[in-house]
Write a structure and sequence with these properties.
This protein is of the alpha/beta class. The protein folds into two domains: about 70 residues, Ribosomal protein L30/S12 (60s Ribosomal Protein L30, Chain: A); about 160 residues, SPOUT methyltransferase, trefoil knot domain (Alpha/beta knot, 3-Layer(aba) Sandwich), CATH 3.40.1280. The protein is built from eight helices and eleven strands. The strands form two sheets. A seven-stranded parallel β-sheet has the order 7-6-5-10-8-11-9, sandwiched between helices. Strands 1-4-2-3 form a four-stranded mixed β-sheet. α2 links the parallel β2 and β3. α1 runs parallel beside α2, α4 packs parallel to α5 and α4 runs parallel beside α8.
């Protein structure tokens, strides 16, 4: 997988996801901390390759590269790797289509210290460079598991999680629902929302009030609201 950018490479390394190779271009550096990161990667066994600006521009995935691009192993976690403490908060992202949305969901999940994100019935590879970019490296800060919905539901049920499904058709406002305890917040695809596979098995159905003409929020925005309500209730 490609991990481009200072913050992204830093977070990968800080979370023991060591790049195999790091390409660097000093002409493009935008700060003063790059050298310490490069040394840390080298000490961890990363192969370092210095490039000219023209070469790095060919490698880069971004419009405004900052001179650091790593090639790292793909994430290969499984449900068996998870051992969440109680109370636990897990995010279920079903069939998210756009890498930017999935990356933003991961960033919000890290912000509220969620225990894991389960990417179910994937439409977007979590190793997509735009997922890494939109997550600003949060992809490496918490467990992210790609799995089938049936397997995720069986795992959650066996551990006593309540599933909170977000849908515009619910009666309950999300701030009125009890989102404490072991909860899995489930959100669905941009076009269709959650499938009946999740809605029919949800313990809690909640909606976000919409006062204008649009009938739903962007899935990443909706997820952020739901997760911060979980955080508010747990802090309270």
């Amino acid at each position: 997988m490609i991990v481009e950018g200072y913050r992204e490479v830093r977070r990968a390394l800080d979370n023991r996801h060591v790049p195999a190779t790091l390409f660097l271009c000093r002409e493009m550096f935008q700060g003063s901390n790059e050298d310490s990161l490069i040394r840390a990667c080298g000490d961890a066994g990363t192969r370092l390759i210095e490039c000219t600006a023209s070469v790095f521009a060919k490698l880069s995935y971004r419009d405004r590269p900052d001179g650091l691009l790593a090639v790292a192993p793909q994430l290969r976690g499984t449900l068996a790797d998870l051992s969440p403490s109680s109370p636990s908060l897990i995010v279920v992202a079903e069939s998210i289509e756009k890498p930017g949305n999935l990356g933003t969901i991961l960033r919000s999940a890290d912000a509220v210290a969620a225990d894991a994100v389960l990417v179910c019935d994937r439409c977007t590879d979590v190793s997509n460079p735009n997922v890494v970019r939109a997550s600003v490296g949060a992809l490496f800060c918490l467990p992210v598991i790609e799995t089938a919905s049936t397997d995720a539901q069986a795992w959650l049920h066996a551990r006593g999680f309540r599933i909170a499904a977000a849908t515009p058709h619910a009666d309950a406002i999300y701030t009125d629902a009890d989102l404490t305890g072991d909860v899995a917040v489930a959100v669905g695809s941009e076009q269709y929302g959650l499938s009946s596979h999740w809605l029919d098995r949800a313990d809690i159905r909640v909606r976000i009030p919409m006062r204008g003409q649009c009938d739903s929020l962007n899935v990443a925005s909706a997820t952020t609201l739901l997760l911060y309500e979980c955080l508010r209730q747990r802090a309270g």
